[in-house]
Amino acid sequence: MTLQKLLSPNWRELWLSLGKRTVIGIPYLWMLLFFLVPFLIVFKISLAYTEIAIPPYSSLFEYADEALTIVLNLGNYLWLTDDPLYLSAYLGSVEIAFWGTLFCLAVGYPMAYAMARAPKRWQSALLVAVLLPSWTSFLIRIYAWMGILRNNGLLNNLLLWVGVIDHPLTILNTNVAVYIGIVYAYLPFMVLPIYSNLVKLDNSLLEAAQDLGARPLASFFKITLPLSKSGIIAGSMLVFIPAVGEVVIPQLLGGPETLMIGKILWQEFFNNRDWPVASALAIVMLLVLLVPIMFFNHARLKELEESA
Amino acid sequence: MSRKSFNFPNAMLALGLAFLYLPMFILVIYSFNASKLVTVWAGFSTKWYSELFRDSQLIDAVFTSLQIAVSASTAAVILGTMAAYVLNRFGRFRGRTLFSSMITAPLVMPDVIIGLSMLLMFVALSSNIGWPQDRGMLTIWMAHVTFCTAYTTVVISSRLREMDGSIEEAAMDLGASPLKTFFIITLPTIAPSLVSAWLLSFTLSLDDLVISSFVAGPGSTTLPMVVFSSVRLGVSPKVNALATLIILCVSLAAFIAWWLTRRADRNKRAAYQMMGRDQ
Predict the structure, then answer these.
(1) Which of A103, A139, A249 to mutate: most B Cβ within 10 Å?
(2) CB contact under 8 A, B23 and A125
(3) pLDDT digits (tens), chain B, 279 positions
């Protein structure tokens, strides 16, 4: 029996397992090569010396005279702790992203709530209305605020005309402008997960609470808010994580006082051509974001399990 | 009813939508301004549009961006379909956790990190094996395929999860090979999600500035890169004209998509009603 099986292998099964492996293998190899391996390379280069060469960094391994020498330069990381600029940039990024996320939540939650309560036939149109701006260009939406917030821009002209102020306010190139930009750009990412969470909410729970004498506000805090927790977490992470690494908003709307790590990394790479320091900055940024990213993945996986 | 519709959430929704749309509205109005000063209204004019179409650098960048966006989203939909199928239909296999986290991580990874790591890998590849020789459209394409695949996988995955698996099982029980079952049963069922995944990655690729800036070479400038370098120098009415055209295209596409899905829903509902009457 076994011999027979060995002599005439089950071609169909072999063929199937080969096919299955190909289907797994192609996306697997792609993501390994273009997503995971690059991180290892960033880590490797963060331990190299800066050199005036092409590419502008030293190699870690040297094989000469039958001896393999490995030179690891921890200087880039020490440099990050030496210069207070980097520490304040990390703290500045986290602070701006934190408050930006809170503002998004404060604006986005009521919007998502109203959308979920709206008549069913309006909901798809409202959803498109909230998402539509994010399908146009991110860059152009940030640019729109440059014209509005300038010293002689629309907002200042309006306020002067109304008579609220008698000389123009400086808003562009300050952190206020950065906050406006973050809320404007990331609001749809906050509204969408909260809305899709609230719309699934079982109305009979609220009716039961009402029947038992709970006031609307009490049933909101006791029922609706706790049940929309996973939507709030997903939305907050979708705003917070990219906001920490934001490059465009601090460069276009921020000023010299805006210290954000994405901007510093960009300058370190493109202006100073210091690839090893830029790599070390990226590695530390990744470590800062590791906890929120794992938090997000965990919430997503839990949601997937619930829906399955 | 009318009393109930005036409450805090509804007011916030109206204000929020105004906040989202007002800046774009202003952008569109000032694209027709005759004055170069963006804040002073000096009469209606379409001269910025004609100047836009005469800017050959910008037109070249539009074509580069469109080529990359079309080819990258097509590849991302193919890879995303495979990845979603693997994650939803193959059960457990060795390395599944690593695979699913590699697929979801780009969704929340900051662009600077993705861009820097991609560039360093391309540099390492070209100095070790001599390929890719220089950076350009090919490297931008590979970078875009990678991050778009994360989005397409999520979109297609959620459709595959909703789909009734028993039809696929029935086809296989009747002797269809897995490949045939996929093309005859699975693919037509998930086709709408492939379209929306393609459109999503098309807009993401067209819009990407940060990752492209890292992996681009001297000869390949995408549209966001051109816009960014001109916007950094200040406000320019030509960018307003470009923005208006982009907003117009996106709104039209969104309206058509919304209208088509609404019609499809209505037809479905009508079909269900007919079935109910027949019974």
Answers:
(1) A139
(2) no
(3) 444 567 888 899 999 999 999 999 988 988 888 887 766 777 888 888 988 888 888 899 999 999 999 999 999 999 999 999 999 888 888 888 889 888 888 888 899 999 999 999 999 888 888 778 788 899 999 999 999 999 999 999 988 988 888 888 899 889 888 888 999 999 998 998 999 899 999 999 999 999 999 999 887 899 999 999 988 887 788 888 999 999 999 889 888 887 887 787 787 778 777 766 554
Residues A50, A151, single domain; the answer is: no
3-state SS assignment for residue A61:
strand
Both A141 and A191 in one domain: the answer is: yes
User: Does one domain contain both A37 and A149?
Assistant: no
Cα nearest neighbour of B251 on chain A: A132
Collect all residues of chain B within an 8 Å Cβ-Cβ radius of residue A137.
Answer: 206-207, 224, 227, 243, 246
Where in the sequence is the domain holding A65, given as residue range(s)?
A: 10-70
Task: Say whether both A225 and A86 belong to one domain.
Answer: yes
Alpha-carbon gap, residue A138 to B156, rounded angstroms: 24
Are both A187 and A149 inside the same structural domain? yes
Same domain, A293 and A182: yes
Beta bridge partners of A70: A61
Are A282 and B227 in contact (CB < 8 Å)? no
Contact A144, B23 (CB under 8 A): yes
Tell me the sheet residues that pair with A68: A63
Sequence-distant (6+) residues with CB within 8 A of A77 are A46, A280, A284
